[in-house]
Amino acid sequence: MSKIKSISGKRKTVNFFSYILLIVLSAIWIMPLFYVVLTSFRAEPGAATPYFWPKGFTLKNYYNLFHPTSSMPYDFFLWFKNTFIVAVFSCILATFYNLATAYVMSRLRFKMRKPYMNIALILGMFPGFMSMIAVYYILKSLGITQSLVALVLVYSSGAGLNFYIAKGFFDTIPKALDEAAWIDGATKFQVFRKLTVPLSKPIIVYSTLTAFLAPWMDFIFVSVIMGDNHKKYTVALGLFKMIDAKQVNQYFTMFTAGSVLVSIPIALLFISMQRFYVSGVTGGSVKG
Amino acid sequence: MDKLKKESKTNIFKFYSKTFIEGDIFTKLSFIIMGLSNLLRGQIVKGLIYLSLEIGFIYFMVTTGVSKLIGLRTLGTQGQHMEFDESRGIDITVPGDNSMLFLLFGVSTLFIVAAFLVLWNSNVKSAIKAQQMKQAAKKLPGFIDDIQSLFDKNLHMSFLSLPVIGILLLTVLPLIFMITIAFTNYDHNHQPPGNLFTWVGLKNFDTILLSGETISKTFWPILGWTIIWAIFATILNYILGMLLAMLINRKDIKFKGLWRTLFVLSIAVPQFVSLLIMRNILADQGALNMLLKEFGLIEKSIPFFTNPTLARISVIVINLWIGIPHTLLITTGILMNIPEDLYESAKIDGAPPFIMFFKITLPYVIFVTTPYLITQFIGNINNFNVIYLLSAGGPNTNEYYQAGKTDLLVTWLYKLTVDKKDYNYASTIGILVFVISATFALSVYRKTSAYNNEEEFQ
Amino acid sequence: MSLAYLINKRKREVEIMKKGKKLIALLMVVSLLVASFTACSKKEEPAAEKETEQATENAEGDTATDETKKLGDATLKVWGSQEDQEMLGKMVENFKALYPEDNLDISLGVVSEADAKTEVLKDTSVAADVFAFASDQIAELQAAGALYRITLNKDAIIAANSEPSIQAATVGGELYAYPSSADTYFMYYDKSKYTEDEVKSLETMMEKDLGPNVINFSFDADNGWYLSSFFFAAGCQLFGADGTDPTTVTFNDANGVKVGNYLIDLANNKKFANHDDGLLLAAFQGGTLGATMSGTWNAENISKALGENYGVAKLPTINLDGKEVQLSGMANFKLYGVNSQTQYPEAAMALADYLTSKECQQMRFETRSYAPTNVELASNTEALSVNPAVAALSEQSQYATLQTSIPQSGNYWAPSEAFGAGIMNKEVTKENLQENLDAFVNNILATLE
Q: GO CC annotations (chain B) (predicted)?
C-alpha cells in the first residue's frame, strides 16, 4: 500500500517537473513569435528596440500594407494573391508528381527503378541557387520569365525527387490488396485511383501541405525569375525587399505586420492538419 | 537480377548487330528511317510519331543544333565591342557571342541528342518487336492498345513522364550547366556580355584544393566547420526533438495537441522572418542583452554573434529552435508505435529510463528514420537559410577570404556568386560539396535496411 | 521522348520567333526611314519652329541638349527603386512632353540602385535601357560591357555636375554614367545633449558627461563604409591616391596604426557603442544616445524621434596623436547608366540626361531628399537648408573621400568588417594591432589566382 503511494507521489513530482519543463520550453518557442506580433503593433518605427514592450501601439502598420501610397508603394494584397495562386497550382502539381512517383517506386518494378531512386537521393544535394541563373535562362527560352507559371513550374518540378516519405507510406499498404484487385481485372491505374489514394489521406495531406508552404517561404528563386516586375512578386520577396538594409528602419514594423498576416493562415492550416501530418510522415514506418 | 542487367549492358552492341542481322528489310531500314517497321506493319500512329520526331530532330540539328555544338566547343569567339559612329556621335554596340548562353544552349543540345538516342533505341526495339510479332502471326497492339497500356502495364511511363520532364529541365540540365562552369574561367573578370570565357580544364580544382593560396586557406577550415555544424545540428535536433516528443507523449501529460501546436507554430512562420527577429533580439544592443542588463545580470553585452566561438554556438542553438519541432512531428507517431512489451520486459529487468532510451527507443526510431536522418544531415550541410539569415556568416575574419567564422561552404559560395561573381570557383566548391555529401549519403543509405530489405516490407 | 520533342518544338519556335522579330525589326527600320524622309520633307518648317520654341524654353535648364529635338520613336524602360516610382513616372511624363512629335513608349521597372548590378548582369538583354545604380558598381558594369560610353552632350554634363560625381561616373578616362545624386554619411545629434560647438570635435563630445547609461557617440564600427572615415582622416589610401590602383592599400602604415590605436581606445570607452542602423532610432528616442553617424535615409525617422532636439552636422574632427584631423566618410553617388544593348541609344541617352538634369535633381531633392550633384543646386546653401540633413551632407561632401569602384574594391567589405569586429570584441589589441592591420590589408588585396 505504502509502496503504491510512494510511486504515485514520485509520479506526481515527475509530472510536475514535466509540466514546468514544457511550460518553459514552449515559452521559449513562442517568445520570438510573440515578439513578431508585438512589433507589428509597435507605434514607434525602427528595426530593433532595446526594450521588449513597445511604448505605443498602432494598427497603422497593417493599414499601410493594404493602402500603398507613393511613399510606401508596397502592395501587399497583390503579393498575397500572387502567392496564393502559385501555392495552389504548384501544390496540385507537386502533390501529383510526388504521389505518382512514390506509387511507381513502391508498387511497380521496371528497369530504371533503382537507378532513379539513387539519383533522386543525391540530386537534391547540389546547392540549388547555384543553378538559378541556368533555370532563369531555361525559363526565358520557354518564354515564361516574369510569370506566375514559371514559379509554379519551379516550385513543383522538384517534387518527383522527394518521394521517399510517401513511398515509405505506400510500402506499408499490403500488396495483397493490389493483387486482389488485379485479379478482379482492375488496371494498375484503377488500383492507384480507387484503392491506394483513398487509403493514403495522411500522406496526401502531408504532401499538399509541404508543397503549399514553399512559395510562401522562398525569396531567392522568385527574385531571379521576377526581376523588375514587382507586380508579380510573392509575399516573401515583397517583404524581403521592404527591409533592404537602408530602408530597414522605415519599414520594419510594416514588415512584421506582413509576416503576421502570412503566418496566420499557414499556422491555421498546420494546426488543423497536424493530425495528418504526424501520422502521414510516420505512417510509412508502421511496419518497419 | 543484377547479373542480367550487366549482361544487357555489355551486350548492347551485340543486341543492335543481332537485330540488324535478323531484321528484315523494314527493320533494317528502321535503323535509319525511324518508325518504318511499325508504320509498314500496321502500327501507323506509332510509326508516324517516331518518324515525325526524327524529322523534327534532324531539322533542329541542321538549323541550330550543330552550330550550338560547335559553340559549346569554343564558347564564343567574337566578343561584344563598341564602334564609334561619327555621324550619330555615339558608340554603336556590335553584339558578340555570349559565352554563358553558348554553354547553356550547347549543354541543352547535348540533352536533346541524348534524348534522341533514347528514342532511337526504343525505335529499334519496337521495330524488331513488331517484326517478331508479325512473324509469330500475333496481332500487333494498335495505338489505342498502347495508350491503354500506359494506364496499366506501362503505368510507370505515364506517371513518371511529367515529373521526369520537370526534373530534367529544371534540375538536371541546370545542374550539368553549373558543373561545366567549374571547368571554365567564368569569374568576375569574364562577365558576359562584354567578355568571353572559355574552358580551363581542372585549373579551378587545383586552385582550391592544392594551391595553398588565398582560397584554399579558406576552403579547408570552412569545410571543417561545415561538417561540425552538420553533425551537431543534425544530432542535437534529432535527440532533443525525440526527447521532447517523449515528454509530450507521456501518459500523464494532458493537452498533448496543445503542446505540440505550441512548438509546431514556429514552422508556420517563414524563416526569413523568425530568424531575422532572432538576430535582432540577440544583437549586442538587442532586446535580450538590454533586458539582462536591466536586471543587473550582466555588465557587458553578451556577444552572441560577434564572438567567433559564441557565434558558432549561437547558430547551433538557434537552429534547435527551427529543427526540434520538425523532429517532434516526425517522431511522435513512431514513438507511439513502439511495442509496449519491449519496455515492459526491460522494466522487469530493472533497466533505468536512460538505458531504455538508448537500448530501445533510439535504435527503434533510428531504424525507421534513417533516410530522414540522411536527408537532414545533407540538408544541414547545405543549410543556407539559417546561417545566411541569422549571422550572414559573421563574424567576418581576416583569416579567410571573403568569409566569416560561421560561414558554411554553401553560404560562402553564395557570397562568391552573388557578391563577387566568381561563378567558376563557386561551382567548383559546389561540386566538391556535392561529391562529399553524395558519397556519404549513398554509402550510408545502401547499408540501411530500408534499402536492402525493401521487398520484405510488403 | 516527349521531352526531346517539346524542346525541339520550343527551340524551333524560338528560332522562328527570333527570325521573325529580326524581320519585323528590319521592316520597321525600313518603313521608319521611308517615313522619316517623307515626313522631313513635308514637315520641315513646323518642326524647326518647335525646336526653337523648346530651345528657348529650355534655355534655363542648362543640361538640355541643343541638338535636334527629334529622337525618333522609341520603346524604353527605366529602372529605379520602389519608392522612386511615382516621381520617376512624373519625370518621364515631363520628358515625353519635350518630344511631342515622337512616339515614346516609356515603362518603369522596380530595381533599386543597390540591386542594379546583379539584375543588369543577370540578363543585360532584358535589363532596362536606362537604369539607376550606385557608383561603386560602375567598374564592374563597365567591364562586363553593360554600359554605353557617353559621348553626346558630354561637356555639358561634366560642366553641370560636381567634380567628384563626374569622377565617380568615369572609368579609364571615359564618362560612362550620368550623376544624379550624392550620398555620404554625416552626424546626427541630440541638441539637448550637445551644443553646436561641441559637435565639432569628437574629443569634446566624448569628454562630456551625459549621465549614466547614455552613449555619447556611436557608429556601426564593424561596417567598412563607416570605419573608413577614420582611416581616410589619417590620410590612409584605399587603392592608391585616386582609388584605381588594385595593388595599393595603406591602411597598415604608421598612420593606420595611429587610427587602430584610436579605435581601440574608443572601443574601450564606455561612452561609446557599436550601433548598427537598426538601433539608432530607439536609442535617440529613449534619450540614451548623444550622436551618431548615418545617412539621409534615416533623416525622417531620426527627426521624428528627436523632435525639437534634432541636430545634424558634418562629421567631427578627431585628435590623432596631437593633430586635429577631419573624419572623411566615403562618398557614393547615384548614377544613371544607359544599357549597352538598348535598341534606341539616342533616345535612352536623352532620357538619362534628362533624368539627371537640374530640373529632375531639384525634384528629387524636394520629394525624396536626395542631395543634388548639380553644382548650381549643390552650391545653393540657402535652398538646401530647407532640409538640414541634405545640407549637412553637402557640407560633409567637401571632406568625403570618393568610394572607389575598381572591381577589386568589392574585396574591401568583408575584411573591414572583420577588422572592425575584431576591435569591438577586443581581439585586436595594441600589441597585435600591426599584425591585424597587415592581415586586413592583405585580405583586401587578395586575388584568387
A: maltose transport complex
